[in-house]
Specification:
Blueprint lengths: L27 H4 L6 E3 L6 E5 L5 E4 L6 E3 L4 E7 L5 E5 L1 E13 L2 E3 L16 E11 L2 E3 L7 E6 L2 E3 L4 E3 L9 E6 L2 E4 L4 E3 L12 E6 L1 E4 L2 E3 L13 E6 L5 H10 L11 H18 L3 E3 L9 E3 L27 E6 L3 E3 L2 E3 L19 E12 L2 E3 L21 E8 L7
Parallel strand pairs: 1-3, 2-5, 3-7, 4-7, 5-8, 7-9, 8-10, 9-11, 9-12, 10-13, 11-14, 12-15, 13-16, 14-17, 15-18, 16-19, 17-20, 18-21, 19-22, 20-23, 21-24, 22-25, 23-26, 24-26, 25-27, 26-28
Antiparallel strand pairs: 5-6
């Protein structure tokens, strides 16, 4: 498991001090609302919640039965300064249900504030989940000038079909989505996880890192560069399967959250479905990373592409001349204690250059690395293409970018395709 020590890091709160008191706020518009509060109950109530820079809003259920943000419920998180004024940054939410279930069917918004033109004024906030099981079917938005963070530490999780997680940076660094599970991570079809934005050197920005006993990826994962006055290179996507699924902890959490609607997050029918699906995943794919098609033919996508149209300031070196270069492809690393099965589209392409008086060369292809202890089975497409350079108006052409690198370690299935 990779541990990040950059600006997103926050210790996992496996123990929780329930501080019911709140921070004093002087802004009359906010003073009537609790700040840095703890909300205790089975159902998360809609509304706007405020926290200070080092604070957070905690949702927990001391009575058991799970923690549920119901469909159609919207919660907004915003950060305030010591003077009680909004900082324009998104807030911080912590969903805390140890040995139980956090179910997120509604909409969570910790994005930064925007101006009248829709441009972000602040950074995205943070969402932390510590629970026995995470069942997400709703949307999480942590966008901003710099993207925010969504982090889950669980014993198993399902991200349902059509769910959405955004931590995009619209004026700076991309965000991060970090999942760590001792059991299966099941990302269903039509799910979208997007951390696109600028990459700050090799720091933890524009990162999707998912670790589970198995990883079943049927959706869309994007960690692409963006154009911010220049094309930017793609980010990093890491999918890791460790094996030895912890079915007991996951089953205990689902059982504890099962009961009558309203007082419990999971119905008996939903518990039966989730256990049956996870049992089948463990039986077929324990220790595997599967980027797989679904029965309706939906194709999973994993991309860490560069973005072009202008030179990437990170590419300070030239391409054998004075020609600047567009965004390079990013990095995708898949590692499995057992097998890697790929039926989708995986891309870490460089970006197209630009025609100008000083043309922009095409970005280099990125790197795709697959590390399997046993077998690699691929019937999808892998692309790490270098892109075309722009033409010249005065002096010379921008060169096409070099192709990237594909590294494979494992026993390959004879049907192995790359592009």
């Amino acid at each position: 498991m990779l541990l990040y020590a950059g600006r997103f890091s926050q210790p996992m709160a496996w123990t929780l001090s329930l501080l019911i008191g709140t921070t004093a706020i002087t802004n009359p518009a906010i003073a009537a609302t609790p700040v840095d509060s703890t909300q205790d109950g089975p159902v998360v109530n809609g509304g706007t919640y405020y926290n200070t820079f080092l604070g957070k809003t905690t949702f927990t259920n001391s009575r058991g039965g799970g923690l549920w943000l119901k469909a159609g419920t919207n919660i907004r998180g915003l950060e305030v300064g010591e003077n009680g004024q909004l900082t324009n940054n998104g807030g911080t939410f912590h969903f805390y249900a140890p040995n139980n279930v956090v179910r997120l069917d509604g909409n969570i918004n910790v994005s930064g504030l925007v101006n009248g033109s829709g441009a972000y004024l602040g950074d995205g906030g943070k969402v932390f989940v510590d629970s026995g099981y995470l069942f997400q079917n709703g949307n999480i938005f942590a966008n901003g000038l710099n993207g925010g963070l969504v982090q889950a530490n669980v014993a198993g999780m399902t991200v349902g079909s059509g769910a959405h997680i955004d931590t995009k940076g619209f004026g700076g660094n991309g965000g991060a989505v970090l999942f760590a599970s001792s059991g299966p991570v099941d990302i269903r079809r039509n799910t979208v996880i997007n951390t696109s934005g600028k990459v700050a050197g090799m720091v933890d920005t524009n990162v999707i890192a998912i670790t589970g006993s198995l990883v079943n990826q049927e959706g869309v994962l994007n960690a692409n560069g963006v154009s911010l006055g220049g094309g930017l290179r793609g980010g990093t996507i890491q999918l890791t399967a460790s094996g030895q699924s912890d079915l007991t902890s996951m089953k205990d959490a689902l059982t504890a959250a099962t009961g009558a609607p309203g007082s419990h997050a999971i119905s008996p029918q939903e518990r039966a479905f989730l256990l049956q699906r996870n049992d089948a995943l463990i039986h077929n794919f324990d220790g595997d990373v599967r980027v797989g098609r679904t029965s309706n033919g939906s194709t999973p996508v994993v991309t860490a592409n560069g973005t072009g149209g202008a030179p990437d300031p990170m590419n300070n070196h030239t391409t054998g001349s004075s020609i600047p270069r567009a965004g390079d492809g990013g990095t995708i690393v898949i590692s499995a204690i057992q097998d890697i099965l790929h039926e989708g589209q995986m891309q870490a392409n460089g970006a197209t250059g630009k025609s100008a008086t000083t043309p922009v060369a095409g970005g280099y292809g990125g790197t795709v690395t697959w590390l399997a202890r046993r077998n690699i089975n691929n019937s999808g497409a892998i692309q790490v293409d270098g892109s075309n350079g722009g033409g010249h108006n005065v002096v010379q052409d921008g060169a096409g970018g070099n192709g990237g690198l594909i590294v494979l370690s494992g026993n390959r299935n004879p049907r192995f395709l790359t592009k």
